[in-house]
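EI: anyone free to look at a 180-residue chain?
SC: sure, send it
EI:
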Amino acid sequence: MKSVKFRSKLELTDSDPPWHILRVPKSKVASFEFKGNLRRVICTLNGIETFNCSVFPSRGDFFITVSRKLRDKLGVAIGSSVTIELEKDTSKYGMPMPKEFAEVLRQDPEGERLFNALSPGNQRLMLKLVDFVKDVDKRIARSLVGIELLKLSGGNFDYSVQHDSMRIASNGKIRFKADR
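SC: here you go
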């Protein structure tokens, strides 16, 4: 699938709370042939920062949101012109699968079944919680804790519980005991 490249100006919505957005003309992504509400793309802004995101419908076109951290990194403010390059995200989960998490799933069929039964949005949230840290050991700890919580809850995903538990586990505040 070919990527599309165009320019857009950073805007502030009049919603409460307001969002910083870049408009995406429908014509620019028509070839992506989005199905239903799944509109995942790989976005590169100003040739600097690449990330996975969704394009949201608005006024017959679409938009992407731009976080404060990303605005600061790009050095852009309201009215700034930004070069956008978009490519349809054809990955299974709408974002890359952390290799540590993939290995935990490979070794735990029940955990894999529960993870695959989650909604696509909850799958991405769980992957982001693992991918958030860059240290390999912390990613492994987060992967193990996340899957164990899914199993303990019968497959119910609670973002707050997952986030807090993964954070505690990856900060070394708890220790896993060896088999007795």
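EI: Strands lie at 4-12, 20-24, 40-45, 49-54, 56-58, 61-65, 81-88.
SC: 👍
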